[in-house]
Specification:
mainly alpha, Rossmann fold, Tyrosyl-Transfer RNA Synthetase, two-stranded parallel sheet, binds tryptophanyl-5'AMP
Length: about 325
């Protein structure tokens, strides 16, 4: 088996603004890992267009995600930061993977089933093929580690299946077996109004999510109005088993304060919401308001964001191009 240099790849779709789920489930963990391994972070605009995007809003959204990554502490001198469509090799490798992945594998993807719902005949072909593009994003850099939230686990597992089938079919060990990295207390941040649903950029009510561009008053108001049950916080995490809204707020507190959820429960055992919610609101404002202020500052100079993304794309292409060339050679595409 080939030894692969440890390398991180991860991405976020610019199909709406950034949420606290994206921050705690992905970006904050990327910042914590930065410097430990070579890291590549991508605004995955090719993924966004699997559902209709207004062209002007797509450009703005791409800059907003990039600004969120930068404002949270992703350093473009240490990590590679770019938007996917500027590196054409992603689309090319995904075509090869479309021919490796099986239709039956795609049929098992729960996110596709959730998104397509009863409308599966009317959604784009791209939405169906999306996990194969995601595998290409990762394997184009021979990434070994992919830090994501819980909802992306199945897609990273599919990436391993695609790598294994490619290696098997072409009798090679060219692609690595990538590991999903899903750890910490907030790998699945839930909706603030309904603890059975994931916090997402597309939910109907703005009160159900924290947007990374929300101002301090809005953040505090949303946490104070978050749905909970009347009982106080229990002595142990076990006591939160059937209380999804309460569990979510404890996990968010833990992630924002770099503690375990057990430690938060130990500190707040027996506390009512009148004490816990204001403490959470203060903590969230303390941690998030500086990020949103910095995002706004960065977004005032879109040309600078575009320049940074262009520089990042150049670095990404330098890694991706030889890997795609070698893939084409393995597949048997004639290179003149
Ligand atoms: P996307 O854009 O939906 O989400 C970006 C990242 O944020 C995480 N996330 C959450 N984590 C915890 N709680 C939540 N409520 C929450 N909502 C979102 C996601 O798990 C993800 O890590 N297909 C991917 C983007 C992608 C990608 C890749 C990721 C494309 N290519 C290659 C890794 C590697 C997506 O749609 O993420």
């Amino acid at each position: 088996m080939t030894d692969f240099t440890p390398r991180v790849f991860s991405g976020i779709k610019p199909s709406g603004g950034l949420t606290l789920g994206n921050y705690l489930g992905a970006i904050k963990r990327w910042v914590d890992m930065q410097g430990q391994m070579e890291s590549i972070y991508c605004v995955v605009d090719l993924h966004a267009v699997t559902v209709w995007q207004d062209p002007a809003a797509l450009k703005t959204g791409t800059r907003e995600i990039a600004a969120g990554m930068l404002a949270s502490g992703i350093d473009p001198a240490t990590s590679v930061l770019f938007n996917q469509s500027q590196v054409h090799q992603h689309a090319e490798l995904s075509w090869v993977f479309n021919c490796v992945a099986r239709v039956g594998w795609m049929d098992r993807m729960t996110q596709f089933k959730d998104k397509a719902g009863s409308n599966a005949q009317k959604v784009s072909l791209g939405l169906y093929a999306y996990p194969s593009l995601m595998a290409a994003d990762i394997l184009l850099y021979h990434a070994t580690h992919v830090p994501v939230g819980e909802d992306q686990k199945q897609h990273v597992e599919l990436t391993r299946d695609i790598a294994a089938k490619f290696n098997h079919d072409f009798k090679t060990d060219f692609f690595p077996m990538t590991e999903p990295v899903i750890d910490g207390p907030a790998t699945r941040v839930m909706n603030l109004r309904d603890g059975s649903k994931k916090m997402s950029k597309s939910g109907e009510s703005d009160m159900e999510r924290i947007n990374m561009l929300d101002d301090a008053d809005t953040i505090a108001k949303k946490f104070k109005k978050a749905k909970t049950d009347p009982a106080p916080l229990p002595e142990t995490l076990e006591g939160l088993k059937d209380r999804p809204e309460a569990r979510n707020l404890v996990d968010i507190y833990a992630a924002l304060s770099d503690q375990t959820s057990e430690a938060v429960i130990a500190e707040y055992a027996g506390a009512g919401w009148g004490r816990f919610k204001p403490a959470l609101a203060d903590l969230a404002v303390d941690k998030l308001a500086p990020i949103s202020t910095e995002m706004r500052r960065l977004l005032d100079d879109p040309a600078e964001i575009d320049r940074l993304l262009g520089e990042g794309a150049e670095k990404a292409r330098a890694i991706a191009a030889p890997i795609l060339d070698r893939t084409y050679d393995i597949v048997g595409f004639l290179r003149s």
